[in-house]
Amino acid sequence: MSRSVTVPATIGIVAFVAFLSAVVPASAQTPLMKLRIGNLKFSASVDLWLAERKGMFTVNGIDATLTDFRNGQECVAAVQANSVDICLLIPGIAMQANERGFDLVVVAQNETAKAVGPDSGSIVVLKDSPLQTLADLSGKKISTSGLHGQQTVAAQLVLKRAGVDLSKIQLMESPSPTQPDLLKSKQVDAVITVDPYTTILQTSGLGRVLSWHFVESVAEQPIGAWYAKAAFVKANADLAARYAKTIREAIDYVNADEARTRRGVAEYTGLSVQLLSAMPLNKWDYRVRPDHWQGVADMLFEMGELQSRHKAEEYLSDSIMPYVVK
After folding, report:
1. What 3-state class would DSSP assign to 218?
2. Surface-to-core class of residue 212, CB atoms within 10 Å of its CB (0-12 exposed, 13-18 middle, 19+ buried)
């Protein structure tokens, strides 16, 4: 009697467990892997925000904690101090940090410049300025958000190619939000800037673009990537791979529907829908092209921001290898 009851019951339990295994995500069956993520809150990181909102981290077995930083230097310091595990950085910052003894490697690429303009990065003069070409900026005062950053170096390179003697221009470091007023009041002759300020300057009728400097220095150069210490990636290879997969899925999501992504950027950043309708979207791209990374390293060396030549491969972790293309 007991056998006739127990056996069917056991079969039923086994069948139910098998059913649960089929319908419940793996992340719900095993403990989630904790990951502390440092973020720079601007439109390019809307993919991270959406990944969290849409549960992509949980599906991939990650318990993510996000912390916003004001700039890349703060984020580098937080990674070095083990306050966060992974951080969003402009590659030039990480390349310079590594020459100072850091051991940062790329876990996932987030964003690149476009192949042709219009792009986020620009050199802008007043709309009615007599300055018509990059060569006209010789001897002029130019505002930039960081004297040694990748975007400034890219702008210097296109100016150099245009025949400008860089020793005869005056670079003034000033926060991006102040640049429209500096240009309007003629305290500077030009600004090296990025969106939303590129679009604000144009749509307001105040500014005119002389150069899309990211595009014209190294087209499609990486301008945003997720970094961690090499030692962390080596010790947490599975977690790094899961993070790279999550970023890939988030980027596929933002690239699938432009209107939806524009609404997401508006909600995430607080930028107006009207401004965003005129602003070119970021180019989210997880596919890594080593020649473009090499172009950035070579540019930084040529302009004196790196002291030695470096190979692109030294910056790439194993987690990013599935996304490397030729």
Report:
1. coil
2. buried
Full set of structural domains in the chain with CATH = 30-113+220-323 (3.40.190.10), 122-217 (3.40.190.10)
Instruction: Please write the tens of the pLDDT for every residue from 110-120.
Output: 999 999 999 99
Angstrom distance (rounded) from CA 185 to CA 174: 14
DSSP state at residue 31: P
Query: Are 226 and 232 a contacting pair, CB within 8 Å?
Result: no
| Complete DSSP assignment for 249-285 | HHHHHHHH-HHHHHHHHHHHH---HHHHHHSPPPEE-
Q: Report pLDDT digits (tens) over 209-248.
A: 999 999 999 999 999 999 999 999 999 999 999 999 999 9
How far apart (Å, rounded) are the C-alpha atoms in residues 158 and 294? 17
Contact present, 157 and 5 (Cβ < 8 Å) = no
Strands 122-126 and 283-284: unpaired
C-alpha span between 272 and 55 (Å, rounded): 26
* CB count in 10 Å sphere of residue 259: 8
Which has the closest alpha carbon to 224: 122, 321, 110? 110
Residues in CB range of 76: below 8 A, 6 or more apart? 87, 89, 93, 94, 97, 102, 104
